[in-house]
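Morning run. Coffee first, then this:
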Amino acid sequence: MKFVKFLLVGIFFGIVLVKSEAVSWYRIFEMFKFQSFHMYGIIGSAVFLGALGIWLFKKLEVKNIEGTKINLVPKEKSILRYILGGTIFGFGWALAGACPGPMYILLGTGVTSMLLVIAAAIFGTFVYGVLKDKLPH
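And here it is:
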């Protein structure tokens, strides 16, 4: 019963993504072909709001539900791993027409082919878990 609030937020998030056409394969295809600003506007807004939120967390010294200050650990300075990971993520996004969150939203809207994409994502996660210690981190 205590997880109902998370379920409701997830449902609301799914509705927003569907209504904004952020899970539309055609919108994603347009984005990767640089034919439309729609997805760049959504992503840019999310990046701006995320940066604003982080700034506010630091400025206001926000505390968690237990009353302790939230510590934001700085990321590594090495950018190569982020470029490589982002490139792989982008290729998967372009090929599947969906990134991880929308895969489940699309399945919920009746796009049953997302079952194959979700299975591939789970398999990829498993492979990463097996190879994690051998990869450069």
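Residues 38-60 form the longest helix (23 residues). Good start to the day.
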